[in-house]
């Protein structure tokens, strides 16, 4: 009954969040927008680590090999929300905004012993900007303003599977279907008003593989190694354009109506990641991840900007006082994380990097329960004030409901 009430509460909140924009940053103007930094379970409080994490009671979207450790007769399902308060700053002014969005919906279940399957839906990229650009009128000292606004992003639906090859080795594979649209409107204010509205639709498939290997326990320390490979992918695109011109007298003239155009494919890079997770005396869990995305091989150019290779460094630490089923507080998980991202975009010869620190707790739904309410708070920065660029400071709150149910469990009749 409690789970049903929590689910109803979650759906109500989601309806509110779906009515809001999901980001507000000028850097989402480039490419497909900014990547959505989504993590499942308690990994949001652990700096978004997870390549070597293998918790049978939580879904891990970072490495499909973790599904080889799912328990028989279990059924995992979880929902997540996040809200962000951000401040955009230049050298002369700043402005703040609040945004919220659903972070993910995911399920996982065993197919047989040592073999699991997972599926989920989550935002992949997000776009939200409102920029005024001053342009010079050729042959004149006068200027005109172009106001560019954008919203939307891509979604990701994934299906992944993982299985045990040997007792300590698991392998996995993940197929992701990317789809969505980015809508942009350009408004030109000259001797007349011109509006150009573009609906840019993209779609494609991305493949990922992974492994996890558990080392022999040494002095009470259980260590797991993990790795992932993501193959390059090409997203095809098409555009629908509507434009019109309106004079100051109020006369409106259609320039283009439902004009269809093909867009250049957007190339996603080859990527790999490695991680190590250690469980120390069943109280401390440390995670260290490194990921590399080879954007330079995609040979893409964005006006005067360029795509560069991206590195992500992440660290997480979790502490559980003791597993005592008769004491609620002893089962609360305390988490800390750090994440540094070099970014993949170079503007004005400046690479747009970011970082965040996070803290979080995992609250059991009841004493010694595997159902958890995960809460995490993150503070971070993206961008820089150098070279007349923009810096974003953000505070992010993530709420995650993680349930463990029974899968095809037969009731006993006395």
TrEMBL record:
<protein>
    <recommendedName>
        <fullName>Aromatic hydrocarbon degradation protein</fullName>
    </recommendedName>
</protein>
């Amino acid at each position: 009954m409690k789970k049903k009430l929590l689910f109803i509460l979650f759906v109500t909140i989601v309806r509110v969040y779906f009515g809001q924009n999901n980001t507000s940053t000028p850097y989402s103007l480039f490419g497909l927008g900014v990547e959505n930094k989504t993590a499942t379970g308690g990994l949001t409080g652990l700096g978004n680590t997870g390549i070597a994490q293998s918790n049978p009671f939580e879904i891990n979207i970072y490495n499909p090999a973790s599904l080889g450790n799912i328990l028989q007769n279990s059924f995992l399902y979880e929902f997540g929300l996040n809200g962000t308060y951000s401040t955009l700053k230049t050298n002369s002014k700043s402005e703040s905004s609040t945004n919220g969005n659903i972070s993910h919906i995911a399920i996982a279940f065993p197919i047989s012993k040592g073999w699991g399957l997972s599926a989920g839906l989550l935002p992949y990229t997000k776009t939200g900007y409102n920029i005024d650009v001053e342009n010079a009128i050729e042959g004149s000292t006068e200027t005109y303003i172009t106001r560019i606004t954008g919203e939307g992003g891509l979604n990701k639906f994934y299906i992944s599977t993982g299985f045990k090859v040997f007792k300590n080795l698991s392998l996995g594979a993940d197929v992701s279907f990317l789809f969505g649209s980015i809508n942009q409107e350009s408004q030109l204010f000259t001797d007349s008003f011109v509006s150009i509205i573009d609906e840019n639709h993209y779609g494609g498939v991305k493949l990922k593989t992974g492994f996890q290997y558990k080392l022999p326990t040494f002095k009470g320390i259980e260590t797991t190694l993990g790795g992932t490979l993501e193959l390059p992918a090409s997203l095809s695109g098409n555009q629908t354009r509507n434009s019109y011109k309106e004079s100051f007298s109020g006369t409106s003239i259609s320039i283009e109506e439902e004009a269809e155009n093909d867009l250049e494919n957007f190339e996603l890079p080859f990527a790999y990641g490695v991680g190590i997770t250690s469980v120390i005396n069943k109280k401390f869990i440390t995670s260290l991840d490194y990921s590399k995305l080879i954007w330079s091989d995609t040979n893409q150019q964005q006006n005067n900007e360029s795509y560069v290779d991206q590195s992500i460094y992440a660290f997480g630490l979790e502490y559980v006082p003791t597993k005592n089923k008769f004491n609620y507080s002893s089962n609360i998980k305390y988490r800390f994380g750090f994440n540094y991202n070099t970014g993949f975009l170079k503007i004005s010869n400046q690479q747009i990097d970011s970082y965040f620190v996070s803290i979080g707790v995992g609250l059991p739904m009841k004493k010694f329960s595997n159902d958890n309410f995960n809460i995490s708070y993150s503070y971070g920065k993206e961008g820089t004030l150098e070279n007349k660029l923009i810096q974003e400071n953000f505070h992010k709150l993530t709420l995650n409901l993680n349930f463990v149910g029974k899968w095809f469990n037969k009731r006993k009749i006395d």
